[in-house]
């Protein structure tokens, strides 16, 4: 499901950080988010990957798992998953309409004008309610933005997670790594274990200090979390055991760091009484998939939602190790608030041409504006227009087509591929003779 009238109305309220509205509404609803244990995952990058690995491992161990992530790529159903399967359309419509009835009762009782909740708050609280109704054994919840004032920060977590910290959303979270770390560390709870990934020194110090002040056991790379590479591949370890020869299903060397964080989370849960075996953990890491993260949608078409500098650097590192066969073209599009030069620079050595594009999302920067911002870069550059119009043409021209810069753009490409836009086209075949005749 892509649209619903209720969501369309609520989306007009925009983005408003803060917990007062969500706390009031969830109290009115009966605090469904307290009906199950929660793994709460924050971070600049890697949140979705860690959520996928942890969820997959818990499912392998026999738990019924609710997973709440954002944003969605193609359908809003993706934000509410039971055992990693998105909620079906019928159940989602029923949940939205029931949740909206309660929202209206609450807002009227409070004398509010307008929806009272933002789109993200509505979807997050609805997911929590659905998880309670479905009696999940555990929920894995991804922070939307920051942490301290994020709508998800009403949960009482079993374990808190900070996957990574980089400069992103500086207008909201702060302009320094320390300021951003403080916002993300706002999810910590007194005495609750914290698992962190590889963080810059400035950010790590902020998180460590807050964890110390709150009495949170801290699991860190190089202290409690270890990785090494040997004859059998990657070995990941914590004080509670190790896994040898680990190969994440998710592509890119950065996924090893995410897998290490996931292992730490699962070992913390095991200490808390969750029976998660080594086999279940390995299976989770080696089976977990996540659309839009270095995903080969079809031969010769790779999409990645790299929408900030750390993300594009991770994608560039993967490209550096990938054999380049023929022409590689990059379809590049992003949101209006992003710095395209900063994000694109790491990718330039690995592509032959950049074609700017945009999807239908209202926050997408138009391709001609994006092209104008990239004029000074030393790369062949073209304005491709809407992704619906340019995807098939580029796919036919390039030996390999790379799509990056926005998760929403990746979602649009996935939908177009499913709709058959690329059917009958082979990478690098060029324009068809029939098409050339038509144009003549």
Quick structural overview:
This protein has 440 residues and is an alpha/beta fold. Helix content is 40%, strand content 17%.
Explain what this protein looks like in three dimensions.
This protein is 40% helix and 17% strand. The model is unreliable at 432-440 (pLDDT under 50). The longest helix has 21 residues, at 89-109. An 8-stranded mixed beta sheet has the order 4-3-2-5-1-6-7-8, sandwiched between helices. α3 (47-60) packs across α9 (254-271), α3 packs across α10 (278-287) and α7 packs parallel to α8. By secondary structure, the chain is of the alpha/beta class. It folds into 2 domains: 5-287, 3-Layer(aba) Sandwich (UDP-N-acetylmuramoyl-L-alanine:D-glutamate ligase), CATH 3.40.1190; 295-439, Protein-Tyrosine Phosphatase, Chain A (Alpha-Beta Complex). The chain starts with a helix and ends with a helix. The chain contains 16 helices and 17 strands.
Main beta-sheet strand count, sense and barrel state: 8 strands, mixed
Shape: globular
What is the residue-averaged pLDDT?
A: 94
Beta-strand percent range = 15-25%
Q: Can you tell me the CATH architecture of the largest domain?
A: 3-Layer(aba) Sandwich
Relevant CATH superfamily of the largest domain? Mur-like, catalytic domain
